[in-house]
Amino acid sequence: MIFSITLVHHCFITATTLSTHHPKVITRTKRQDHLTMGLELNPCEIEKSIKMNNILPSQSPFGILERVTSVLADDNLQSNSNANASNEMRIGISSKKQIAINGLIILSNFLQVGLQVSSCGSAIIDFYTFKFTSMFSTLAGGLEFSRRLGWEATPGKANWMGAGFSLTQSAMVLVSGRLGAIYGHNRALMAGGAIIVIFSLANAFTSTYHAFIAMRAMTGVGGGILMPNAVASLMIATPPGLARNATLAVFAASPPIGALLGALFAGVFLQETAEWKWLFIIIAALELIVLIVLFVVLPSEEPVDKDGTIDFIGILSGVSGLVLFSFAWIQGPAIGWDTPYAIAVLALSGVSLVVFVVWESKYAPEPIMPVRIFAAPTFTALIIVVLLTYMSVGIALWYMVAWQQLIRDWTVLNIAIGWIPYGVGASFAVTLAALLIPRLAAQYLLAIGIVSSMISLLLLGTMPEQQTYWAQTFPGILIGSICADFVYVAAQIIASNSVGVKEQGIAGSLIGTLNLYGNSLGLGFAGTIETQVARHTESVSLPYRAAFFFGAGLTLVALVLNAAFVRVPRDSGCHGEQTYVEIQVKPTGLGANGQSTQPDAATRSSLHLARLTMQDLHGMSQTNSGDSFAPPQAVQERGSLRTPEKGKSQFIGSSSGNSFVNTVRRAFINAYSRLSMHA
């Protein structure tokens, strides 16, 4: 029952937040023989596009409008023009198949989350909320798996159980979206799922600690490929509106629910009388069934950027640098920092990162991480703050599990049940964050998240070895649940306002990567501290306390940096109520079977929406005056502009003066510049 309540609550809040704060993508509806496509961009981006393309106010917008309508009307998508497509607008799939695909993608995400949380990987990509609930569930069985595989079950030397999955997953998340754009998001989705199935099944037949960790790391690669491309596939298959919001809400809710259930399953299969290998076999089989059905129902697709190039040097140097740096810190406590091998790996990671920076800044034709992004106001400070905070959260979760299991003799099942309040608290934190977004500056939301993690770490670090769960463990868990949602939401807001339009996707991916990478890196640092303290004391709890206090110190540094350097940059007055500008197009061409043609995938992907504010429109009408106009006959016949206001469609083609001219020009200039490539 608690999982059902959490899922429903999270879906409602996420759908509300998406509809209020998230931009829509291309709107496609069918109205008789007309195709309505919405164009939506941020007002600031429109202004930048006007300047970049040297569009003068004197230029007529109707050439732009005709160009858009012509491309939409004349492009032929014969692959999707079949006998079953005559009664509805589609992108190669029917509405029933679309629902099936969405459900299968969500189930696939649910299963991979449940698998990794049960097998002790690390935090899971949750694009909206509940990031670290899933990480806890991942860590729940780590020490018990280590013991059964014959490895020393101390947190500092078994930290690969908590870091292996998240390390490789974070590395792949940063680049897999680009791979999906070039080779197809559906193909990438299937590839990621296949990797998860293969190496999860392999996990069932491992008998040593190192083989187990290697399989978990490879499974993390599949998770890193699957997650961003699953979101992209959902976005492509589902039109904007309530259906998309609900779909994304359920998708966002699937990781935490799968995580909590996965932890419970781990507790069941890690009972002394159970066989843990069956956990991997069962979930791998379920994932395989989902992938087979997806293979059957997924439509053929044309990649968004099939002619694009991959920055292999950037990927190799960047990913290897990040992985080796974290690898050295995670492995250091187990092998000792006096081992030349550990120092050599750390030095090699530094060389790789230097190569990455030089290549990306000077030589890469299409860099995966433009170095100029770090010159954006407040962005570098934000990255450091987010990394330190996520490191602290990973430390809190891993060492709480160690404390409960190794000092208080809790079973894995007891630990999973004890952390249910974390998931419930994170769910309600979504509500609170959504309410505070329009009322509180993002840096203050970030500060609240940091402070909640600090309080949680201090509560856990000062508790006696034996104490009732309700005294300090429960409040520490509940307060700590606030951190993930507040930090993630605030960081995305600050990042999107700090960088340019073209870098916003990269900035968002980087924040998501830090979510995972910080968890694994934090365990490496804390493991070093724990093992060093353990050498000089006979106390069982003191090394764990040292790790908790180190995590609290990280939050203190993050809080100071946030107060001193992190701000939400002003966006040059681009505020106001946002609305859509849509163009209604009547197709004029006929396909091979006599049906009206639809725009091809390249055209659809090239269309950007132009987001205008009512305040902006009113300002133009007050500052611009001119002759009334009559749109050209071709435009009257083939398309019309309209802007929905307060849920109603309202044609603005009858307005007078240059306000309409500027509206059309501003709304379609970006689409025009993009479409010129397909001329």
From TrEMBL:
A Pfam family assignment: MFS_1
Domain Major facilitator superfamily (MFS) profile: 107-570
Bias kind Basic and acidic residues: ranges: 639-648
Coiled coil region boundaries: none
Bilayer topology annotation: Multi-pass membrane protein
GO MF annotation: an example: transmembrane transporter activity
Transmembrane segments: 188-205, 211-236, 248-270, 276-298, 310-329, 341-359, 371-399, 419-437, 444-463, 469-494, 506-526, 546-566
PROSITE patterns, per the entry: MFS
Record-given protein name: Efflux pump antibiotic resistance
Organism from which the protein derives: Gibberella subglutinans (Fusarium subglutinans)
